[in-house]
Each structure stands twice: as structure tokens, then as C-alpha cells.
Amino acid sequence: MSIEVTAILAGTIAAATPLIFAGLGELVAEKTGVINLGVEGMMLVGAIAGFAFASHYEASVFSSLLVGGAAGMAMSLIFAFFTLSMSTNQSACGLALTIFGMGISAFIGQNYVSTALPGLHNLNIPVLSDIPILGPILFQQNYVVYLSILAFLVVWWVLAKTRLGLLLKAVGESPESAHAMGYNVLAIRYGAVLFGGLMAGIGGAFLSTVYTPMWIENMVAGRGWIAIALVVFATWKPTRLMLGAYLFGGVTILQFHAQALGLNVPNEFLSALPYVATIVVLVIISRDRKLLKMNLPASLGKTFNP
Asked: In what way does this protein cross or attach to the membrane (predicted)?
């Protein structure tokens, strides 16, 4: 395998990391029947919060990710209050949250445009990193990449193997039945939405402190929307979401290696390729109505008043 292809595959894993964080958070929220279209805004606020914290306090990447996650969670709390406590439209509130996140991140980020961070060095795992082909791809990544894989394993295990996972699904399928059985549906949905905000914030902070350790206005560049599309693409299954994130990560990273691979394709098309791929995948998935109906949470987007 050529060095160029190895670099593309290694870059694919890193590029998919923010999509995995944000997508897993949105998947958990949608499992309970809440669709939050504000992922893009939460990622942007998480990105600027993590970057500002790291810049001011020369903090570690891990603590900056936590700050970014906390900022994303605060944004999701706003969304949860209006949609769950005040019973307003989820789609409208999500769009408003994205617009708000874009505005406030641009405003706060004015003072950080020319600032750069040291970033994070890739690990070089002994023995494993020396494995031909797989070593440079899988075992020479930064530790946040491995945290995203750990997050996937935890979410998969909770949803598939635990009582909490069954409860989240029950709330998403029939909140009325869950309420009749004595469960606090709103509290469960609050927790899921806050978890989604935490994960989106971490994904945004990863972009600004690790993946591209500098602040650029609107640097999330549509990844929040792709994360939402990934949940549909995955039909609300964590494993398929993980694979979809790597697929979109590969499409994203391909534009940076196109010339080296000898692809004579206009740069504008390559820049638009991830979004074109998103539309194509959604069209294909939406045609299989039986598959969507089998996995779609029955109460998704619907207001519940106990």
C-alpha cells in the first residue's frame, strides 16, 4: 500500500472523530424522541469555549475538551428548556440554536483569529505501531481518537445491553406508556439532550484544539449537519453511525490528497463533495421506507406533556 493511501486512511480516522462524538450524542437524544437540529451551533460554541480556555490558561487538551463539552451542554440546556419544559417546536428551536451558536462563536472568537495552539502529538503505540499497513493507520493517532472509539463502545453497550438503554428506547417509542409506568419522561429526555450537547461540544473543541489548533470563524463547516444526517443514515444504530462517520471522514480528507493521487478534479467540487455525499446517502436511505419505519423512534419530534 502506497504512503499516500496510508496517509489518507490515517487522516480519515482523525477527520471522522468530531462526527463520531456529535453523531453519538444526537443519536442518544433522538432515541428518546427529541431531534435537536442545533448540533452545528453547539459544536461551534464548544469549539470557541475550548479554544479560549486553552489559549488563556495554557490548559491541557483534555481539560479544554471538558470545557467545550460543558459549553455544548449549556447550549443544549437552552434547547431542552424551550422544547421540553415550554413545549415549543423542536425543529424551530434547533435551527434557532444553530443561528445563535454561529453568532456568539463569531463574536467571542474575534479576539482569537490570529492565535494558534500547540495542538496534540500523535501517539506511537509500541509494537502495534510497527505493524505493516495497519500500524500507521490505527496505532499512530492522538488519544482523542481513541476516546471517540471508547465513547462508541460505551454508547453501544448502554443501548444494547443495559436497562437504561431499554428505558431510553421506551421513552422514544411511547412516552405515554413510560409515564404511565412511573418514569419521569421529561427528566430522561433532559438527560439525553444534555448528553447530546456534551458530545457535540467535545467534538467542536476537538476541531479547534487538536484537529486544526487555531480559531477560524464557522470552522465546524457543516459537520453538525452531517452528524444529524449520519443518525438517519445509521438508522439510529451506533455501529452503522461509526462506519458512516469514517465514510464521510474519508470523503472529507480526499480533497486534500486529490492532486497527489493524480485526480484532475476542480477544488470547488472536492470542497462540496462531503455535502453532496450527505444528500446522496439521505436520498438512498429515505427510499427504503420499511427500514426507516422499523428503526425510527415513534415519538421523534413530538411534544410530550405529562
From this structure: Multi-pass membrane protein
